[in-house]
Amino acid sequence: MTLDHLPAPGTVRRAHELSALGGDVGAAAAELVASLSAEPWGQVSVSVYETGRLVSLAPWLTGHAARVEFLLSAQRPDGGWGAPGGYALVPTLSAVEALAAERGRGTSNSPLAVGGSVRRGLAALRRWAGTPSEAVKGGDGAYGGPYVPYDLRELPDMPAVELIVPDLVARLNDHLAALGEGEPLTLPRGMDGTKLTLVRTRLASGAAIPQKMLHALEVAADAAAGAPGVVPTFLQEGGDAAIGASPASCAAWLGGAGVDSPVRRYLTGAVDHYGGPVPCATPVTAFERGWTLSWLRRAGVPVSVPGELVAGLDAVIGPGGVAAGPGLPPDADTTSVGLYTLALLRVPREPDALWAYETETHFCTWQGEEGASPTVNAHVLDAFGAYLRLAGAGAENARYTAATGKLSAWLRHRQLPEGSWRDRWHVSPYYATACCALALGEYGGAESAPAVRAAVRWLLDTQREDGSWGRWSGTAEETAYALQTLLLTAPAPSAAGEERRTRAVRRGHRRLLAMVTVGGEPLEGPALWHDKDLYYPAAIVRAAVLGALHLARRHGR
Question: Where does residue 233 rank: exposed (0-12), middle (13-18), buried (19+ CB within 10 A)?
Fold first, then answer.
């Protein structure tokens, strides 16, 4: 599902115009749950980065013209693509390289539009991470503006960014050299191509590479095509097969039009499903179902879950956990949210698969993770805490009890001084703070109460004038996270503090109603979730919104 499914402001009845939404949350939630079965590939937005890779690597693939048009239409007025700041670098590099390749082939139906888009994109790149002499050329005005090269430490912590950026800069510089257009682009300070060279060398040798690397196989260039060390993952026995759950990885491995194969069929299916452009990862069945159902259930939204959804979620969690998509490694995040959801649905399932991710200090997202994620550890705390609530904290579960204390202490230590949390899997501190504060409030014990109160104070301090919350602007998604945190944590220790919280909830609820349709879908859905590019998981966000609306309505009674 692309962002095209989101209704434009003024074309739908907003929730505040029909006060019945509060009473219809259950019906909207039932519709949402039904959509999980009807659309098993997942309801996520398409990606500029991933779509650009298909334009560059697979012009033979059906839907090519639609992908080119998507890139042209998604360009910002300043010449870039994507979200603000460092989040723009990867999608802009991908789009400019793809359109430069399209221009070089000379087969475009819109050569003037493609050429103009490339020039504007190059101007943006030279301002951000290019060559100072080019940045001040002036000429026709294309390269005007200050030269502000990125530093590696300033870039968002996105998957494979240290491989993707050197690959795209090198590809784009090849186009510039062939066309005789200006000095080459340079890499952000602190970044080089050493790791990328190692990956390509290993692939060329026929050796296997870590499974997590398959999600960005497209960076390996010619070494990716038919690499014997890469084994596709079948979506179902005898059916289509994916590499790293990524259309771009599949295109790189195919290396050309090729013959009919399970990987080619997966790629064609993804293109057909999304209408030409593609997301970074698909399908994301277990990931989407776990998050969607857990947001609804945690908020107490009255909705029944079909038995086949429950059984399917239970079945995919193996001894080592479950992956977010076919060809990705199992991870503690998808596994813990799935287990937590089963516990909320009162399906007895011991969360012992999560022990594979335990380290001395915390739980890693996957084996060999560089860095650590507070939200992953909050989700593991949810899974262990919910299990102990069902099974009891007897001697046989002492390890789980000890782990909840360890996780709680680690999360408290990772809280920022102002009371929020930040995370590597989401742009917004409101998502990370909701995950951590809710887990600590429910399962972190009395010693976590001060951390939860600090999170609540931070939410109250950062509410916008219009009643919303958001990092860059107020969004329905981030407002929903803030409301759920305020409404699912313990009351303030003073009457004045609780009155302040009540006023904030009322303002936030009114604003949220104005930001969604009568079915609880945000009128605007900015991409805030981390993958190779930012993406928007529509079903998950809608579940968080419906949960917040349900809680706020109950609070107002």
Answer: buried
